[in-house]
Amino acid sequence: MTLAALNDYLSCHGLLVQSTNAKGRSVFANRSHKRGNVLITSQPLGTVVSPSSRHEICNYCFHKPQPLCTLQQCSQCKSAYFCDMTCFKNAWLTYHQYVCQPTAATLTDHHRNDLDESDALDLEMLERVALNCWRYNKRLGNIRSGTTAKAEEGVQLTLDTFYSLVGHQHDDNGQRHRRRQALAQHALSRSYLTNSGLTEDQLTDYLGKFQYNNFDIHDDHLYKVGKGNYPVASLFNHSCRPNAVVLFDGFLLSIMAIEPIAAGQEITIAYVDPAHDRQHRQSLLLNKYAFTCQCVRCVDTTIYGRIDGLLGDEAMDQDNALALLRHATPPMTGSSSTTRAAILQQVNDWDLLEMCRRYDRRHHGAPDPTGPLTLASYTHFAIQFFAPYLWSACNPAISFSSASSFPGALPSPPSRALSYFDDPLPDSAKPMVPTTYDAILNHVMQAVQAYPTSDIIPWRLDTLTTAAQLLHDAMKHGQWRNAVKLGMYVLIQYCWIYPPYHPILAQHLLLLAKCSWNSIIKSELLGDGKALEMAYERGVRRWIMLSKETLAHAVGKHSEQWREMVELEWIFLREQKLKE
Ligand SMILES: C[S@@+](CC[C@H](N)C(=O)[O-])C[C@H]1O[C@@H](n2cnc3c(N)ncnc32)[C@H](O)[C@@H]1O
Fold first, then answer.
1. Distance from the CA of 23 to the center of ligand 1, in angstroms?
2. What is the pLDDT of residues 374-417, one digit of tens each?
3. What SMART domains does the database record attribute to this sequence (predicted)?
4. Last residue of a domain, one of 297, 316, 351
5. Crossing angle, helix 560-579 and helix 503-526, to 10 degrees?
6. 390 pocket-lining for ligand 1 (C-beta < 6 Å)
7. Is 302 domain-assigned?
8. Distance of CA 417 from the midpoint of ligand 1 (Å)
9. Helix (H/G/I), strand (E/B), else coil: 151
10. Residue 161: CB within 6 Å of ligand 1?
11. Cα(499)–Cα(245) distance, rounded to whole angstroms?
12. Alpha-carbon distance 419 to 395, whole Å?
């Protein structure tokens, strides 16, 4: 396929694909795009649901059933689940009629018995993609679409782009290639593919493309629920500091800008979680996608290139693996238990009210320079800089253009909805905030690194890992006040890693709003006093306001999280009114 054909389609979306030496093809903006804009939506050529999600989401559209509704089980194979007859019929027409077997046949299916889960999923995906390629090709025949640019991704474009995807076959070791051949043979033994005219070599090539191009499909809460092959979306290259993210509405994929993107800039997404340290990200990218990352965070000498130096290495993999395996906190042995205890001590000593007073009202909020920063002083110091930026990012009407570098007076809120940042302090009482996010990162980085350090260095990734575990423990045990403090600390760490509008940030802001609301309830029960209650109220207001805009874009207004946020806002405002 020529780049011209692809560009006819992409140009309708303000995008352009070009070949670059280092990365193969790259997608660029050919006009500017605003933060929060959906750049492109893409239909899959094939999808598979993860075994653990088969009973939980529709196996066709990937949506969860509506409240009070249940999924319908296929009466023949009893192993597939659908929202309703419409999804069942769509699945039947596209692939289910070929793979649906009576229960007994499925159980004795010798093809899959010797496969591990990953191979079984790859085989399933291969069968679906091969079926679609065959069906679409039959339908299209020799008719090629005209040259008129179309805003919709047509079947021809999806197919041609799929055939053009990178497979890195030449880099493959023999063992990997043999595994693919074995899966291709499995697929060709299925009666419906035997007559498709597809060859073992073609299917082996498709499997190579999967490895470097498939997307993990996730639900509203960012849990992986399956895999999909989206050829056009696969053209976007990786960066550890991406300016766009991948979102899903069921199986429909969108790519959304999370930074303002200028014409001529490359658009990148993250193939691995940017929260990993540099070494871990690089080895994941090399093993899974066969390239050495040269992105702005991995090689740049500007602020993004210094973030990994600040964050350091993450906690040992073994600790993480144990935590994941046991769905619990890692065992309290050796240094990790000491770190945990020391962090918990700092959290218990953290006087939220005193910190809010100190950092919001006096001395431009700089901690005592003679001692190390605690989690509390680090968080309250840094939040003064990050929160206004998040706030302005969430309010397109407000820009960082004033000479004082701090957003000026805000317009009165038009209604009782939380649409403005609730900060009662006069500008003069606040520290100067640099005018761009890069400048804020630079300023805070330099400031915190000037402090002496102790065993617990708040800005390091290993502290974040332990604090994140403690946060989940605190929420599990209803220790809401500790959860608020740890949640604020985690937010600061996320500000280094994720740009505003990133779904992880949106999700975390909602979590903070919920923890603050639960703290209000707990404070009322314990009679903690008006001042503390007001600090939590301000927190709920602030976190709801911030999560609202980010959630609307990052996960959408159809999502469970959006519903939770709207409910929380409603309850909060009602309680506030009752207090008046
Ligand atoms: C999903 S594809 C992206 C589109 C690809 N560039 C193409 O021409 O089809 C993934 C492949 O693109 C290349 N790639 C993506 N991001 C890269 C990066 N940051 N640095 C170097 N190569 C990259 C690698 O070859 C990787 O295996």
1. 5
2. 999 999 989 888 877 777 666 555 444 333 333 333 333 333 33
3. SET
4. 297
5. 30
6. no
7. no
8. 44
9. coil
10. no
11. 10
12. 9
3-state secondary structure of 112: helix
Single residue among 149, 179, 214 that ends a domain in this structure = 214
CATH code, 30: 2.170.270.10
- Both tokens of 131, joined, read 């079926």
3-state secondary structure of 396: coil
Residue among 205, 159, 157 at smallest CA distance from 181: 205
* Cβ–ligand 1 contact at 165 (below 6 Å): yes
Beta strands 268-269; 237-238: pairing state: parallel
ipTM of the complex: 0.99
Whether residues 109 and 169 fall in one domain: yes
In the DSSP assignment, the letter for residue 371 is S
Residues 323 and 262 in one domain: no
Q: Are strands 24-29 and 244-249 parallel, antiparallel or unpaired?
A: unpaired
Provide the number of structural domains found in the chain. Answer: 3
The encoded tokens of residue 332 equal 């309290």
Specify the pTM: 0.87
Is residue 478 left, alpha or beta, with left meaning phi > 0 and alpha meaning psi from -120 to 50?
left
Answer yes or no: is 222 within a domain: no
22 C-beta closer than 6 A to ligand 1: yes
CA atoms within 13 A on the CB side of 193: 25
Phi, psi at residue 229, to the nearest 5°? -110, 115
Q: The domain containing residue 242 runs over which residues?
A: 3-43+230-297
Do 313 and 385 lie in one domain? The reply is: yes
For residue 361, the domain's CATH number is 1.25.40
Question: Are both 392 and 269 inside the same structural domain?
Answer: no
Ligand 1 pocket, 377 CB below 6 A?
A: no
Please check whether residues 77 and 7 belong to one and the same domain.
no
The answer to the question of residue 223 being in a domain is no
Do the beta carbons of residue 518 and residue 575 sit within 8 Å? no
Is residue 287 in contact with ligand 1, taking CB distance under 6 Å? Answer: no
pLDDT in tens, 54-75: 999 999 999 999 888 999 999 9
Cα–Cα distance for residue pair 545/527, rounded to 1 Å: 27
Helix/strand/coil percent split, the chain, to 5: 55, 10, 35
Ligand 1 atom 27: the closest Cα is on which residue?
289
User: In terms of domains, do 209 and 282 share one?
Assistant: no
> Do the domain assignments include residue 451?
yes
What would the two tokens of residue 31 be?
Answer: 């006009």
Is any ligand 1 atom within 6 A of the Cβ of residue 27? no
- What are 127-177's pLDDT values in tens digits? 999 999 988 887 776 555 554 556 677 888 999 999 999 887 666 678 888
Residue 554, token pair as written in the block: 């990052």
Distances (CA, A) of 133 to 26, 97, 202: 25, 16, 11
Which residue, judged by its Cα, is nearest atom 13 of ligand 1?
23
Per DSSP (E only), the strands in 418-457 are: none
Query: Residues 137, 10: one domain?
Result: no
Tokens read off for 286: 């090399």
**Residues 428 and 323 grouped into a single domain:** yes
